[in-house]
Amino acid sequence: MQKANLKDLYINFFVENGHVQIPSAPVVPENDPSVLFNTAGMQPLVPYLMGQKHPLGTRLCDYQKCIRTNDLESIGDKTHHTFFEMLGNWSLGDYFKKESITWSFEFLTKVLNIPVEKLAVTVFEGNNEIPRDEESASVWRSLGIPAERISYLDKDNNFWIAGEVGPCGPDTEIFYWRSDDPVPVKHDPEDEKWVEIWNNVFMQYERHADGTVTELPHKNVDTGMGVERTAAILEGVDDNYLTSIWKDVVDKIEEMSNTTYAENAKSIRIIADHIRTAVFIAGDNSGIKPSNTDQGYILRRLIRRMIRHAKKIGVDLESGFERTLALMIIEKYAKYYDELEKNKEVILDVLTNELNKFNRTLEKGLREFEKIVSNLEGTTLNKDLAFKLYDTYGFPLELTVELAEEKGITVDKEGFEQKFKEHQEKSRAGSEQRFKGGLAGDGEVETKYHTATHLLNAALKQVISKDVHQRGSNITVERMRFDFNCDHKLTDEEKQKVEDLVNEWIKQEIPVTVEEMSKQEAIDSGAECMFIEKYPDVVTVYTIGNVSKELCGGPHVQNTKELGHFKIKKEEASSAGVRRIKAILEG
Predict the structure, then answer these.
(1) Is residue 15 a contact partner of residue 257, using CB atoms and an 8 Å limit?
(2) How far, CA to CA in Å, does 386 sit from each of 118, 305, 398, 411, 562?
(3) Strand-pair category, 578-586 with 565-575
(4) Is the Cβ–Cβ distance between 282 and 37 less than 8 Å?
(5) Helix (H, G, I), strand (E, B), or coil: what is residue 520?
(6) Which residue from 148, 206, 334, 516 has the fewest beta carbons nearer than 10 Å?
């Protein structure tokens, strides 16, 4: 079973069952401050799961690019990836538990030919607020899953809510027995040989700020199945990197390093994983470049970590290995994500430039190490110095230890690990804070900022150039951030003109209208859009009088008078050829 076939089989199955395929959203989310990257298949669909009408209807399916970097240090084992693909199908107020479970079961057993006897499921056991999910359990029994293979678990395992309030509900998870041992009669959720392959979430309740839970009139289904994990199951391996998804890349790394996967599995996995993720981030139309903040920082870390491990296993860093591997990945995925082919030269330049920069940093780090050692009192390198080499120069602990051992010096590894753990917890806390709002993130203030970005875009076109286009945006309750292509720093006069123009349109009390039309009709009508290829064939277009007409998922205010006073707080460079404006709405 090839990976590409899995995606095609999935989409074909759900299209045949009345679903419409939607394009994968970019890896960098639009107007979503909760995360740096799209981390799940449902994330781009949040407005529609909240009740907004989707232009393509109520049954949708897709394969979605996802990136998660919270557990970067876990990469190198058999199952973790920073970039992965999620297969998903959704019901927006259409079908519910019976159809959802039945289609999941049919796809696994009839299309992928997975034996029923190797499957088990979990459902929500219920609590004092929400009843036990007997409806799901009953459907599973009717399909041939015996009662012994249905486990009832608590809300920590089988109940879903994105944040603290908003849509929520029970889920049912499907497990596969990944072992040559006989399949147990009874499902044991604690037995790691049972591997989760699919999750169906039933959004049937809403949790309110006062803690109460009520039934939703508009019930949704959100499902997700990971491509990499499912491929490993279908191909009968317990190591994702031994599947057809990775074989050509792993073989090439073995050839370049003159080593084997068996000898250097961890480093080869890290190189393979990180180069793939770097290709997708650098190939995203949002124009992310390596930097010391946000997505650019993640991209830089991934490339540098990949380079460190390539050097460690003997890959010639002057050989152009990063370009060779990137081209293999672009060729493999371009059929599904055409932005990779379109942005191929950008991707290659990003990788090579960062490699050259890091080579210089590596040399500086080695010089810094020599300096530290020459000034060392005693024979132990303390945790602060070891962490400085890691944090400033990208030296992993094992490299510092190796260099120290050559000079008869020990390293405070325990102290370093403690300091590193503190650093990780701070990073993770920041990441969790980003997602705290959950599905309730588009409140009244954020909605105003959505509309303000359209006005700002229109004003920049008038003041700077008609060729100005949005390159990215980020919205929180405190401010809006808007990236746009521009070859110069805006003058004070230009900023004032832009600000005045936006405020003039706000004062004019212009109504904001919305309509659905075909993508081609929208283009022909002159509607502005960011990344046209990601939109489906039927789109939503928001019009603000004669000022702005844009394809957008929303939400927006009904009239510009709701926005208050627009104020530019800062204008700065974002990356080469891209400027960034931070602005607020007052009053």
Answers:
(1) no
(2) 48, 17, 10, 7, 54
(3) antiparallel
(4) no
(5) helix
(6) 148
Confidence of residue 437 (pLDDT cuts 50, 70, 90): very low
Region 444-465 average pLDDT:
92
Q: Which two tokens stand for residue 432?
A: 């969790």
Q: Return left, alpha or beta for 169; rule: phi > 0 is left, psi -120 to 50 is alpha, else beta.
A: left
The three-state (H, E, C) secondary structure of 145-181, written as one string: CCHHHEEEECHHHHEEECCCCEEEEEEEEEEEECCCC
List all residues 6 or more positions away from 251 whose beta carbon is below 8 Å from its beta carbon. Answer: none
Taking only the tens place, the pLDDT of each residue in 563-583 is 999 999 999 987 778 899 999
Of 113, 96, 14, 109, the residue nearest 60 (C-alpha): 14
CA–CA gap between residue 495 and residue 581 (Å, rounded): 9
- Residue 75, class by beta-carbon neighbours within 10 Å (0-12 exposed, 13-18 middle, 19+ buried)? buried
Name residues whose C-beta falls within 8 Å of residue 372's C-beta, 6 or more positions apart in sequence.
381, 385, 389
Name the token pair of 138. Answer: 């009953």
Signed CA dihedral, 234, 236, 238, 241: sign only: negative
Tokens of 292: 């010391």
Name the percent of the chain lying above pLDDT 90: 58
